[in-house]
Amino acid sequence: MLRIVERLKIQPHHIPQQDVDDTKNLIFWGIKDVRDWAEVNNYDTDLKALYGRRGGCTLERYKREDLAWTVEKGFDQSILIWHLATEICFFQDYIKSDDIDTGFSEEGTQSPKDERSAIGLERRRCNYLSRYMLYLLVRHPNMLPIGMGNIKFRDIYKDVGHFIEEHAGKSVGDEVEASKTLRTVKTDIMLTVGGRDRSRRDRSNNVIFYACKLASALGEGEEKWKIIKDVWLEMLGHAASQCKGRLHAQQLRRGGELLTHVWLLMAHFGLTDHFQISRSHAIAEVILR
To answer: Residue 28: what pLDDT?
Structure first.
């Protein structure tokens, strides 16, 4: 229903070649905007203030403090909640790739040519970021600040079908119908059921409940996708900054993980606790901790 078989065989995350430069530019400008904002607001390079809230700064900027609960849980749980909510919104606002009309700048950034394409482009970008963070959670959990991480991705997706049949009263045939069904789930009632049961099934259901609640609360329109995109960029920055330097070094020996390149880009902008960089214009002395 939600391509469970393919997802359970998670492979190294793949972004179509025509979208690679656009994704790189998205991340680059996202980090640069945070650095510029920090300078204007006298935060300097305080990583805890800029990325320590794991999406909370973005929600505050968009005046969506009502969603703060989604980023105040364990990081693994927040990733799963936002991933599932992104998937629900992705298929509910389904737009075929052929219907997204964009042009390209010299840097490879895509520019939409109409309003529908603008929504489709933001939606696609969010999908790439969401699935990359899920890939890290499944394949490289040691690179994420999630502790033991007691909620498993495979458990969640195994229970999605059961969840829909039990609480929506029917099974569905494709991703679009599944997303519409999940979007209408009455989570306020369901979250009060079985709250003390710590079984795997109940942990999975709670994540699904929260994701349905989030997808519904995000509402409609272009701003929804801007919020989702910026939350994922903030989570990506948090993950990169919290990963230990030796783990980044191990990934570089294997050819490099995107998260490591994000970490190095953040260091380039001075957003790091791993390096000490001299302020002298004549020489920059870099000391790896």
So the answer is: 94
